[in-house]
Amino acid sequence: MTNHWVDFKNADVIFIIGGNPAENHPISWKWIEEAQRTRGAKIVTVDPRFTRSAARSDVYAPMRSGTDIPFIFGLMKYIIDNGLEHRDYVLKYTNSSFIINDEYEFNDGLFSGYDAAGRKYANASWAYKKDEEGNVIKDETLQDPRCVWQLLKKHLERYDVDTVCSVTGTPKEDYLAVAEIVCSTGSGDRSGNINYAMGTTQHTVGSQNVRSYAMLQLLLGNMGLPGGGVNALRGEANVQGSTDFALLFHILPGYLPAPTGTPLHENLEAYNKTTPGGYWTNRPKFMASLLKAWWGDYATPENDFSYDFLPKSYGNHSFISIFEAMYEGTIKGLICWGQNPMVGGPNSNKERAAMANLDWLVSIDLYETETAAFWQDNDGSQAKSADINTEVFFLPANAPMEKEGTVSNSGRWMQYRWKAVSPREGVHSKSDLFIANDLGLRIKKLYEGSTAAKDIPIQKLTWNYSAGIGEYPNIQRIAKEINGYNVETGKTVGLFGELQADGTTACGNWIYSGCYTKDVDVTTDQENDQFYKDYKACRRDDTDLGPDGKEGIGSYLNWSYAWPANRRILYNRCSADWNGNSWSKDKASIWWNGEKWAGYDVPDFVGTRAPQDPGGMNPFIMMNDGVGALFAPTGMVDGPFPEHYEPLESPIPNAFNSVELNPAVHIYDSSMNEVCSRDVYPIVATTYRMCEHWQSGVMTRNLAWLSELVPHMFVELSEELAAAKQIKNGEQVEVFNERGVVKAVAMVTKRFKPFNIRGQEVHQIGMPWHFGYKGIVTGHQANLLTSHIGCANTRIPEYKAFLCDVRRA
Question: Cα(499)–Cα(501) distance, rounded to whole angstroms?
Fold first, then answer.
């Protein structure tokens, strides 16, 4: 999130799209309704289904899955056509005035630089135009036809309200009701919050969906303001933390890019030459400190701080790609930790066939999952147990209440959770931390006598978190390493600004630097009471006062620790104008008092820099140019502007250009990747979560009370579709397509309605994805029907829009 959960109370408009917080993030709804109750905030929900969030909203508008970009672009055109943008904010805090190269062009769905054979773009033509001294040429009148503002207006011309509604299926009166509310916050004295979840990201244009939200918020001046921002509602308590610590294949902790096996990253010097501008110019310090944390004394300037020990990637290793490699027999082993791809992964039959090619599989979880038992025959699967030779190991893990440590929530708040109970007597489960530490120690022991050069990275790896194999690791040692410390003095650093590129500092994750009290000795373990005082994740001061002693805005700066530097609202320089004055007293976050920056938050920039100092008006410090990107010359593989493309499987052709599918999407052309034709499978399907079950159902379908609440896999369909198919509520039905068949109970409901899409009636159905074949209650996986296709940028699977049909069982 750019903002945080409590900050929702400061919003005048809450725009929910691609999520269902009333059901899936119920604590957030406390703050949403507080804004409604105390500020008169308006809640707007846009979703294919009338959700529990929609039921508590002021305005609901239906929208066909996969049409976020037209919906948002229509709002942006509405803003510009009616002069509703925050003009001063747009001029100073975005790249609206920047001139783009003459070579850049957009034509019928394709941007300049497209390579059709490789399905990829070369983005050189998307660059800014510069003068002889290398400065970006700007036009602050915003009249030059090559400036970003004019190019954006031209790009949006096709997204008028009538065309948008004909594609999204949104009734025009509902769309205009949304536009009137959402577009009302471009004045500086009001703010609007966009919150979203997987309904936004799980598309072939998922990253551009999010970008379109950010562009909308930039037009309205809502980025950096209390009650504003673009806020991702994370699906688990520590999804944010796991991402921060490099769960994803393409990054190292702190979002440092993972090295690739290319000349660009052949050594540390080459790697550092790829460092971008903005605050990222400090990346060599962060990288050297990370390598020192991992390889300690062995990491020296002479050996590039052991940079060569880092594995280098030679391709895409995202979720789908990993399973495609298993299917082809390239990957022989898999450690599946707190994951259940037999339920949560797309195209379940193919994923089972892929795991059948493994030599071994390790599953680490609370219960025997469908993945741990993938080799067992079950209703709905295609492969047979007799043909599967994979050896499976199951390691029982502790429940959340049986372990301690930190989790980082959606608002980037790092909070410590204390252990409540021990596992029952006779239960041999272990915490994730114990398992990881013990596995690391055992691997190091296996290699300790080797003389092979290839084994040095394991032998020299610093791993001193416990007394030895079988012993529980000391959390404070890990916390101190994460925070960072001075190698020479052995004292913790105070913040990431103290990290150096010369090997004198070590730091496990630069964005969390500052989470530990400065100058604590890292060579000596503390008593627990002192550790809890020094580790800021443990803080629980619930007072919220501003610099004047008056009630704050919900920052709670002494509750836990937020990265980076305990900042609660990112880009908060935007909450004040270029002179440092708050846009309005009601939306004050930080301000320049004539001598320094003061306020209710930690400045998200160099706090000693006066507004008129060089860079003092650059609120987006991680960007090369310091401003928000209405036009993105780098960073996106599928275009500097978003553009609408239909999902892989769509009931209609693209209305905005002649390119059907995102042209930069990777196509997996192996077998078992069938694509469904709209002529055979006319119904749009989507998947979603519900309050009564959790993720793949491992933790809820093994609990009797929750199993009793929702005991059956079901499919939700409209009364109109049910009548056409002669299906009654409660009957058994089959949802099917080229990839599989799902048996489910029919839930005939008013929550779905047929869409009118360009004069054609289009039905959409929905299924929860929580069910599988293990547990107290079982049912077919919804993902038997989804496909191996993903976002062009991230390759997150397209779970939210695919084609199928329905019949009585």
Answer: 7
pLDDT in tens, 547-596: 778 889 999 999 999 999 999 999 999 999 999 999 998 899 999 999 99
Rounded alpha-carbon distances, angstroms, from residue 709 to 179, 690, 693, 705, 779: 38, 11, 9, 6, 14
C-alpha–C-alpha distance, residues 349 and 430, integer Å: 31
SS3 assignment, position 192: strand
**Distance, CA of 604 to CA of 544 (rounded, Å):** 19
Asked if 766 and 755 touch (Cβ cutoff 8 Å), the reply is: no
Contact 23, 691 (CB under 8 A): yes
pLDDT tens string 311-337: 999 999 999 999 999 999 999 999 999
Q: How far apart are CA 526 and CA 534, in angstroms?
A: 10
> Is 77:159 a contact under the CB 8 Å cutoff?
yes
Beta strands in 366-474 (DSSP E): 391-396, 405-408, 413-417
d(CA 64, CA 69): 11
Q: Which of 705, 691, 699 is CA-nearest to residue 774? A: 699
For residue 109, give Cα distances in angstroms to 123, 158, 662: 15, 12, 9
Q: Which residues pair with 551 in a beta bridge?
A: 545
Contacts of 502 (CB under 8 A, 6+ apart): 288, 301
Query: What's the CA gap between 604 and 570, in Å, rounded?
Result: 6
Token couple for 678: 């709209």
Nearest to 45 by CA among 190, 241, 182, 236: 182
Q: Are 429 and 397 within 8 A, CB to CB? A: yes
Residue 313 has φ and ψ, to the nearest 5°, of -85, 150
Is the pLDDT at 387 greater than 90? The verdict is: no
User: Following CA atoms 68, 73, 76, 77 in sequence, which dihedral angle do they give, to the nearest 10 degrees?
Assistant: -150
The pLDDT value given to residue 382? 64
Radius of gyration of the chain (CA): 27
- For residues 274 and 265, the answer to whether their CB atoms sit within 8 Å is yes
365 to each of 150, 323, 387, 435, how far by Cα in Å? 53, 20, 25, 11
Instruction: Tell me 265's DSSP state.
Output: G
How far, in Å, CA of 736 to CA of 733, rounded?
10
| SS3 category, 169 | coil
Count the helix, strand and coil residues of the chain and give each as a percent rounded to the nearest 5. 30, 20, 55
**Cα dihedral across residues 86, 89, 92, 97: positive or negative:** negative
Give Cβ neighbours of residue 739 (< 8 Å, ≥ 6 apart). Answer: 347, 349, 350, 672, 674, 676, 784, 785, 786, 787
Alpha carbon distances (Å) from 633 to 75, 112, 131, 144, 614: 23, 12, 17, 18, 23
CB 471: neighbour CB atoms within 10 A? 13
Task: Show the domains of the chain with their CATH numbers.
Answer: 1-99+138-236+573-636 (3.40.228.10), 319-447 (3.40.50.740), 683-808 (2.40.40.20)
* CA angle, residues 242, 248, 249, in degrees to nearest 5: 145
